[in-house]
Amino acid sequence: xxxxxxxxxxxxxxxxxxxxxxxxxxxxxxxxxxxxxxxxxxxxxxxxxxxxxxxxxxxxxxxxxxxxxxxxxxxxxxxxxxxxxxxxxxxxx
Amino acid sequence: xxxxxxxxxxxxxxxxxxxxxxxxxxxxxxxxxxxxxxxxxxxxxxxxxxxxxxxxxxxxxxxxxxxxxxxxxxxxxxxxxxxxxxxxxxxxxxxxxxxxxxxxxxxxxxxxxxxxxxxxxxxxxxxxxxxxxxxxxxxxxxxxxxxxxxxxxxxxxxxxxxxxxxxxxxxxxxxxxxxxxxxxxxxxxxxxxxxxxxxxxxxxxxxxxxxxxxxxxxxxxxxxxxxxxxxxxxxxxxxxxxxxxxxxxxxxxxxxxxxxxxxxxxxxxxxxxxxxxxxxxxxxxxxxxxxxxxxxxxxxxxxxxxxxxxxxxxxxxxxxxxxxxxxxxxxxxxxxxxxxxxxxxxxxxxxxxxxxxxxxxxxxxxxxxxxxxxxxxxxxxxxxxxxxxxxxxxxxxxxxxxxxxxxxxxxxxxxxxxxxxxxxxxxxxxxxxxxxxxxxxxxxxxxxxxxxxxxxxxxxxx
Lengths: 93, 462
Hints:
The complex is a heterodimer of chains A (93) and B (462).
Chain A: H1 2-23, H2 30-41, H3 45-53, H4 58-86
Helix pairs in contact in A: 2-4, 3-4
Chain B: H1 2-23, H2 27-49, H3 58-77, H4 83-111, H5 118-146, H6 159-179, H7 184-202, H8 210-232, H9 235-259, H10 263-269, H11 280-284, H12 293-301, E1 305-310, H13 312-316, H14 320-332, E2 336-341, H15 351-358, E3 366-368, H16 369-372, E4 381-385, H17 394-397, E5 416-421, E6 441-445, H18 448-461
Parallel strand pairs in B: 1-2, 1-4, 2-3, 4-5, 5-6
Helix pairs in contact in B: 1-2, 1-9, 4-5, 4-7, 4-8, 5-6, 5-7, 5-8, 6-7, 8-9, 12-18, 14-18
């Protein structure tokens, strides 16, 4: 129970941090914000890594493999496309 | 001790994610911000690979190689006009991964007969529902944006009832899972119902409402990751998931406000019942003035300030590079040129900005609605290209209109308005646009890109 309270606290506080930080992003950069935050939500990759590597059963390994693939697409594609987009925003033409 | 090091590494990763998002507050710091986020992810992944539960690396390597190859391919090959569907697809993969991870954790817990507490089961059910809705909803959104599925709202009788039932069964099975955590198949039942729900929720939503849907799915992918964090008791998942969840909520709200519609209306209402007082004939007959590129070029010879208003039509006709050339030509003649960007222009938030940035238009020329609206009265010519509902004065004038109260770009207040458009066909809201019939409006009928090129040619000749 105590553990639950701790992570619940972290969850709620992180939501507030999220609102504060993201409210400051100008509309100019909303598309890169979406692709960039998207890449961050690929953090689920670290859960996938453990499932894929722990070899409990064939089922968990397969689930893990698909999850690792999906999450990696999310992470790599997200950060890379954000980088590509942000590089296009220049002051003088 | 080992777990302390891992958790400190996760903390560092979380801080880097926050700093990364903070960097996006300004174009100058944004590239570095994105790199900080990437480094955070790298740290989290590397430290996880040292986990003692991992016995073999072959499977992991296969997954990472396959995922990286697909990710790199998508990131490099997707044109800027295709960003909305790319982001939709990435959202889906994130949500799908969260669902699978939660499922694997459940199977593993049953196998090891560890004690399964209520936090674990509730979080697993949540992850199953939200992740599956995100995955399938995003695939439908991708299909619509990519043109694989019709962009029109797909409506059928009893739709809301079907959705409500699907959600009810998903929740019911979820509660059963909490009671009977040893039965893994219940989880897959939750996932099955939620998957269908994801499809039926997004199918009825039309193309121009896609910005809201993508933002919402973005939020869901974050919340799914946070839910998986509760399953695994993992802080970095919870923190990153909430950051992304918050981002999606802020953006969906902003999109809804910019259309003066509630989220419920966008998701379940659909645009349909049109009961405006004026029909298109009343508005257009005898009042629409058709112009030519030559005439507009002459008009542009003697101006000081021009505002260009791009909409989704610009992306469709790939006119952004032609517009850049027009921009440079006008600037060389000493004309001040700015771009007015409505928050819901395009198919995702900020879409127009990316397209114009790609065409090398300096970002300080891209103005938000609130900033540019007071300047229209001092504007000689406003050029509207591929935008419709977001410049329709009916939003201000007719309280019975479906877009009544929607904040619009006040282009009609410019001295002259030039509208480049294929025909008088209505925009997404399905209503006529009184701007096209205004005294100070000239219509240039034709393909956006071709018209801009003709205009440039006429300007150079004149």
